[in-house]
Amino acid sequence: MIRNSIGRSSGVSLMGEYASLVGEAVLRQRTRQAEHTARIEAELANRVKSEFIANMSHELRTPLNTIIGFSKIVSEHDKRPVPSAEIVEYAKLIHDAAGHLLNVINDILDISKIQSGHYTLNAHETNIEEVLQATYAANLAAAREAGVSLDIEIKDHLPTVRGDAAKLQQAIGNVVSNAIKFTLQEGSVKIGAIRLQDGGIGIVVSDTGIGMSPDEIELATALFGQVDGGRSRWREGTGLGLPIARSLIELHGGQFKITSEKGKGTEVAIQLPSASTFNIQEARDALLGSGGLV
After folding, report:
1. Mean pLDDT of the region 47-74
2. What is the pTM of this model?
3. Is the pLDDT of residue 217 over 70?
4. Which residues have a Cβ under 8 Å from the Cβ of 213 and sit 6 or more positions away?
5. Which of 171, 189, 190 is nearest to 180 (CA)?
6. Is residue 175 domain-shared with residue 113, that is, in the same domain?
7. In whole angstroms, what separates CA 75 from the centre of its chain?
8. 231 and 278 belong to one structural domain
9. Which of 48, 154, 231, 256 is spaced 20 to 30 A from 91 at the CA atom?
10. Which of 19-23, 37-41, 278-282 has the lowest mean pLDDT?
11. 255 φ, ψ to 5°?
12. Is 239 inside any structural domain?
């Protein structure tokens, strides 16, 4: 009887030791997996950050070099006379470079404010048709220069929305500008808008551009992410346009969705609530409560 008790006690002890060893092995394996995952995520974050810094450096230095170079030529006009026609051309180049530089700086400030939750909207009843027409007009010259057709179609009479007209134009303008940028010559970009059954507004910006894979869509809308982010990329840009656009639409209580296919183009769908259903504080609380705007 005593021998059986000792045997059972020994068996229980062995099983306990075995369970402890298995538990420790599982814990070590999980720790290794967590460390491996964290290391990969850190490496990816560092790579994206490095690409963004290199890209941003390029985006800042290029217009600055233009401004410095051509302003120096104009300032030395008394030493080396420059024809009037060339002075006008240089002034235009300086103006364009300064405008590009200002846009880059504004993008950085906008994304910083959005991330910190300090971005404010001057919300009031807004005529979205006027916003869309202004966006169309603002991008028409760029489309013509790129050899891309730009069209707009507004169906029915759109209801007003509760929001900031300037920020809505910025958001939709970023999408349209991006569509033009990645559409080849003789391609097309179309802005469409329609009244939805729930009283809201549906806006679609479609293009016949180079398109994106699902992974590239995720990258394009991620903060500091950029499809073809290397220095040899074929189009300039900070890579902040779409993340800012999505954040601004979400701040207006709307939805932002991209569908695309490589070689066949991209479609960006935006849904905005009507002025009667929109609550800016609810939208802000929902966004900030989910851990951020982007």
Report:
1. 79
2. 0.67
3. yes
4. 260, 262
5. 189
6. no
7. 39
8. yes
9. 231
10. 278-282
11. -125, 150
12. yes
